Structures are given as structure tokens and as C-alpha cells.
Amino acid sequence: MVMNQHYVEWFSGKELPSYLFAESWGGGSYGMAPYPHNGMWLSKSTTNGSGAAISFGATTPYTRRPFSCTASVFHIVVKPSNPVNSRAYIGLSDSKGSITNSIHFTHDTTKTTYELGTFGQTQSGSTAGGAYTVSSLPIDNVRHHHRLESKSASAEYEIDGVLEAIRTETLPKGAMMPHIENYAVNTEESTYNITYLEIYNT
Amino acid sequence: MTDFYDLLNPHGTVAEQRMVEYFTGSHIDNSRWVTNQLTGGSTATMSTSIDGGVILTGGGTTNAKATLGFNNVKQYTHTGSVFIGVYKFSATQASTIQTLGLSSADSNPRSAPQNAALFSCSTGATSYYVESGDGLNFASTSTSAQVDTNYHTGKLALDGAGIDFSIDGVLAVRRTDTIPTAPMQPVIHLNSDIAATMNVNYCEVYNT
Q1: What are phi and psi of A79, to 5 degrees?
Q2: How far is A61 from chain B (nearest CA, A)?
Q3: B197: Cβ–Cβ under 8 A, 6 or more apart, which residues?
Q4: Do residues B110 and B103 lie in contact, with contact meaning Cβ atoms separated by under 8 Å?
Q5: pLDDT tens per residue, range B157-177
Q6: Of A30, A76, B15, B204, which sits with the fewest C-beta atoms within 10 Å of its C-beta?
């Protein structure tokens, strides 16, 4: 069997790996956490609309997208700091927006639970749109293991080893890269700590 | 295709912080490691030999040092963590100290007042010993495991009450006093009066 593209990041060391594109705006920040169990952080400041993100691309068009929309798996271990006023899009996307062509989950404190989202509008502008499916896990500030899988006719979302959501509509249509964004239109600080990221094509 | 995550973690569990370093490539991963302490002409570079990994080489001058660390980013806990290194020492003579493990400092990692859990071949010794620091004092325990110039796997397991040191899967000693009291980083350290070398081709650290 020939191995497909496979990527593992531990977020451990003196700074973030240079192959990740990290950015922040409005007073947001990112970096390697200098203490145990927290890997790297993505923080939003008290500035309305501030945030921070990591991906594989700095500018459009986003060409570093090695992961399939029909046969890929995404693992992450992430801990939100704030269960009240924060929002993150976490998964795979064709761009630095998560609502064009993507599979992701949301930790959105305006919602009740973690949700699986799939969007099928590519950078070239097709208009399949997207939607979300709820999980059973209430929004919290606990470290969890999340697993997303893109299949040819469905998208699946597991939390801590339990299948929580399946979507069969508005699936992504093009190649993707990791895109993890902490962004909210409010004046609250929030942080997401990531200790593990694994992505591969099946 | 297998989920690497599932190879390392029982299904349904949330992984703790981990790091695996293979020391393979054109240069040391400078976003992960820092060589904060290269003195007396010492070097730390990628080996060009089979199985060579990274090689630390003493500068051949008195008390020359080479140290790899995480720039004091201390992500591994004193109450539950494991350090594993695959290494080869070039010398067992009295003029060389070769050390791997965890320390709160990436310069002079094996002295007070550091928090540390380390295994060493030290000056004048022909057997391994385990050193540790609790942030105030530093102490060591000798083992009966003899030092040689072959590749070995050294493992330190910290559980909050002590430090177990194993070599090639065999427990050599457990230290229970002067154990670390604060988080640490992995360190690889050479201190030699001669041009001694230490190769490391695998390093893994994780919180339990």
C-alpha cells in the first residue's frame, strides 16, 4: 500500500513551525505556550472583531491545499478558554474563510453545542452554500479530541471517540488546507490552545 | 490509512502534549530547538552518518559545552511525563559529561537551582547515573549500568514521586529525592575538555 499525504504537528518546541502561516489582527496573538498541556495558543483581544488564525497560506489564491474534499481525516486536540463569548472555526478549508469550501466544527458560544459545518462554495464561486449539524456536546472550555472525516458522499464528526454528527449535503468540492481561526465580533478575550493536529488523505 | 492518533492513544481518550523528533534533514529544526549554549568551539549539527541524527561535538577546549533545548519553553510536567532518547556517546573518559533528559534551563541544565531529571555519563564514571534538581538542590544516583559507545535507548519516567531511569528497556534506578517541582523542557547536553561527540537520532517527550 502506498501511503498518502500525512501530516502530524505536536506544537512543542521553542516557537511555531515555519511551515504554518500564523496571523493575528486587532490585538489578537499566537505563539507557543511555555507551560505544560497547552501547545500553541490563538488569542482574541478585547478589540471588537480581533482574532488569530493558522493555515497553510498567506495570500490568495491559496495553492497549498494538499487534502482531499472526498477522502481525508482531520484530528485536533484543542481547549477553549472561554465558554461564554468566543467562536472558532476549526477544520479544513480552501481559503482563510471557513464558509466557502470547507469541513469544520465550530465552538461558538452563541450556539448550544459544538456543530459540524460543511460548505461547498469553491474559490471560483460556485454557490452550493453550507449548513451546520449539531452535536450532543454542550459548549464548554474543556480539552477535547475532535475528528473530522471527509468521504465521497458524507462528512463525519467525532468528539472524544464518539460519532456526533454526519452531513450529506453542501459537502466541500475542492482541495483544502488546515484553517483554524479564533474570531468573534465582541469585546471579550478568548484563547484556544492546540496540542495536536493530524491530517491525512485516506 | 491509519490514524496516527489512534496508535498512540486509547480510543476515546484525549491526547496529552507530545513531541517526537527524528533529527533527520538538512539542519536542526530551528523552530523547535535552540542551541543557546555553544562554548569553546563546540558544535551541534546534523550528522552525515547513517543513524547519526544530530551530533554534538566538543570544541576540544577546557569545559566546552553544547546544549540543545526549547529556549525555556517548558511544556512537560514534573508530575507526569516521559523522556525517551536514542543516543550514542563517543567517550567514557574522565573529561566528558554527556547528558539527556528534562531541565528547566537550556544553558547549564545540570546544576542547581534547576529543576531537572537527567541521565548522564559523567566525569570519571564508567556507569550511568541519574541526576535531578528540585529548584534548589541537585543530586544524583549511580547505577550499575555500564557506559559504552554503542547506541542505546534511555528513558526517564516521572510520576511526581520519583524518576525511573531505564536503559534499553531495563530499569536501572529510581530516584525519589531532590526530584523536580516545576515544568521542564527536553535538553541534550555535552560538556567536554576534548572533542568528544554525542549522537542522538530520536527524542520523544510526552505528558502522561
Answers
A1: -125, 115
A2: 26
A3: B55, B56, B57, B58, B90, B91, B190
A4: yes
A5: 999 999 999 999 999 999 999
A6: B204
| ipTM of predicted assembly, 2 dp | 0.87
Out of A13, A34, A143, closest to residue B33 by CB? A13
* Tens-digit pLDDT profile for residues A169-201: 999 999 999 999 999 888 989 999 999 999 999
Question: Among partner residues B13, B17, B31, which is closest to A39 by beta-carbon distance?
Answer: B17
- CATH number 2.60.120.200 is the correct assignment for the domain at A6-201: yes
The verdict on a CB contact (< 8 Å) between B31 and A38 is: no
Per-residue pLDDT tens over the stretch A54-83 = 999 877 778 888 999 999 999 999 999 987
Which pLDDT belongs to residue B95?
85
- Separation CA B156–CA B130 (nearest Å): 9
Q: What is the domain partition of chain B in residue ranges?
A: 17-207
Predicted confidence at residue A61, as pLDDT, reads 76
CA distance B8 to A150: 22
Task: Mark yes or no for CB contact A36/B18 under 8 Å.
Answer: no
pLDDT digits (tens, 9 = 90+) for B114-148: 999 999 987 777 889 899 999 999 999 999 899 99
Name the residue in chain B with its Cα closest to that of A149.
B3
Q: Could you give the CA distance from residue A124 to residue A100 in angstroms, rounded to a whole number?
A: 10
* pLDDT score, position A124: 57
Q: Where are the domains of chain A?
A: 6-201
Would you list which residues of chain B are within 8 Å, Cβ to Cβ, of chain A? Answer: 1, 3-5, 9, 11-20, 29, 31-34, 69-77, 81, 183, 205, 207
Model confidence, pTM? 0.91
Q: Kindly report the number of other CB atoms within 10 A of residue B64's CB atom.
A: 23
Q: In degrees rounded to 5, what are phi and psi of residue B6? A: -75, -15
Q: Smallest Cβ distance to B73: which of A32, A195, A201?
A: A32
